[in-house]
Amino acid sequence: MKTSRGKLIVMFGFMTVTLAAYAGEQNSGKAVEKAEMKTSRSQAKSANSTTMADGEVEDVDIEGKSIVLKHGPIKSKTIEMEPMTMPFSVTDAKLLSGVKAGDKVKFTAEYINDEVTITSLKVQK
Ligand SMILES: [Cu+2]
After folding, report:
1. 112 CA distance to ligand 1 centroid (A)?
2. Which of 58, 82, 105, 123 could cross-link to 68 by cystine, CB 3.0-4.6 Å?
């Protein structure tokens, strides 16, 4: 009785160790997966910062910090949009200084405070 109980404990102990090792393997696998996700996300982020959408200025309201653009496809961290004409907010009115209707622009936009907001804008010469 005493012996078989001891065996059981040993067996159970062994199983626990095996399970722990297995769980450890699973976790390290997940950690690798997470690390890879992080890498691809940061790559996507750096791609976003250089990929600008095309637009043509329809209207500018510097005081209202808004601009109406006929824009091409937008793909950023928070926005994915088909081409259309629509108003945008801007993070800073300075982005609109010297910008006028008819200008061709390149811009980046993100969804900020429930508004599609232009975060950078360059007039194309
Ligand atoms: Cu749009």
Report:
1. 14
2. 58
Two tokens at 48?
């976003």
pTM above 0.70, yes or no: no
> Are 46 and 56 contained in the same domain?
no
Report residue 13 CA to chain centroid gap.
46
pLDDT tens per residue, range 97-115: 999 999 999 999 999 999 9
16 and 5 fall within a common domain: yes
Q: How far is the CA of 42 from the centre of ligand 1 (A)?
A: 25
Measured in Å, residue 39 CA sits from the centre of ligand 1 at 29
**Total domains in the fold of the chain:** 2
Distance 49 CA to ligand 1 centre (A): 19
d(CA 65, ligand 1 centre) in Å: 17
Q: 46 and 71 share a domain?
A: no
Read off the CATH number of the domain in which 70 is found: 2.40.50.320
